[in-house]
Amino acid sequence: MGASLHEKLDHRIWDMLLQEHVTNKGDVNYTAFKKDELQLEKYLLSLSDHPPKEDWSKHEKMAYWINAYNAFTVKLILDNYPLKSIMEINNGKAWDLKFIKIGGKEYSLNNIEHDILRANYKDARIHFAVNCASVSCPKLQNRAFIPERIEEQLEQASRYFINNTSKNNLQANQVKISRLFEWYMKDFTQEGSLVDFLNRYAAIKINSNAKVGYKEYDWNLNAQ
Questions:
Q1: What does pTM read for this prediction?
Q2: β-bridge partners, 169
Q3: Contact 97, 108 (CB under 8 A)
Q4: How far is 58 from 38, CA to CA, in rounded Å?
Q5: How many Å is the Cα radius of gyration of the chain?
Q6: Are the beta carbons of 140 and 151 closer than 8 angstroms?
Q7: Which residues face 220 on adjacent strands?
Q8: CA distance 71 to 102
Q9: What is the structure's pLDDT at 10?
Q10: CA-to-CA distance for 13 and 43, rounded, in angstroms?
Q11: Of 98, 113, 153, 161, which residue is the least packed, with the fewest Cβ within 10 Å?
C-alpha cells in the first residue's frame, strides 16, 4: 500500500520544485517559482484529491499536512505576487483565508496548523517544519517531508532553527530567541521548561536560570 499511496500523492513534484527554487538557507525564488506554477498546481490538485485516510500511518499524515501547509502558502504568495510581505494579504490575516480545498472541504492555513497538526500530534517540532513565507520564520525546507524520513527531518529542522544566529542568540546565562517560543510557549513546555527544550538542540548548554528575551519578528518576504 505504501508505495502506491506515495505514487498517487507524488510528493516528488513538490520535492523537485523545492530543490529548484529554494536555497539551503530557505530563501525562495518566487519569480522562478511562478514560471513553474503549472507543476505546483498539479501537486496541489493531487493533495486535494487524496486527503489522508484513517488507515494512513501517523508519519504519512504528518508529512501530508506539513507539505500541504507549505505548498499552499507558496501558492498564496504566488497568487498575490509581487509583494513585500504576507502581511499585505487579507489585512494581515492571510492565515484565516479558506482557500484550500482538500477532499471536498475548505481549510485555512490556520485550520491546518492549529486544528490538525498541533491538535493531533502535540509535537513542538512542527513549528520548525511549517513556513509562513517570512524572514523570521523557520526556513522553508528545500526537500519535501516524506513519511520514511520525517523524524530525521523534524530533528534537523529543529536543530538548524535553534542554532541559527539570525533567529536565536544563545548564551549560557542569557538567550534572545524567536517570538515563536513566546507565542507557542505551551507547545514547547509540554515536557519541561523552555530552556529544557532549547537544550535538546542547542550547540551550547544553557543554564536553567538563564535570562530569556525575545527578538522582533521580521515579516518581510523570505525571497532571494
A1: 0.96
A2: 176
A3: yes
A4: 30
A5: 17
A6: no
A7: 85
A8: 13
A9: 76
A10: 6
A11: 98
Q: Name the residue type at position 73.
A: T
Q: Distance between CA 60 and CA 147 in Å, rounded?
A: 5
Q: Cα separations (Å) of 109 from 55, 96, 129, 210? A: 24, 7, 14, 34
SS3 state of residue 194? helix
Chain position carrying cell 490538485: 45
In 61-125, at which residue ranges do the beta strands (DSSP E only) sit?
100-102, 105-107
Q: Specify the pairing of strand 211-214 against strand 174-177.
A: parallel
To the nearest 10°, report the CA torsion of 26, 179, 124, 204. 80
Per-block mean pLDDT, blocks of 10 residues, the chain (224 long):
50 97 98 97 96 95 98 98 98 98 97 98 98 98 97 98 98 98 98 98 98 98 96
Closest of 121, 186, 183 to residue 151, by C-alpha: 121
Cell of 32: 522562478
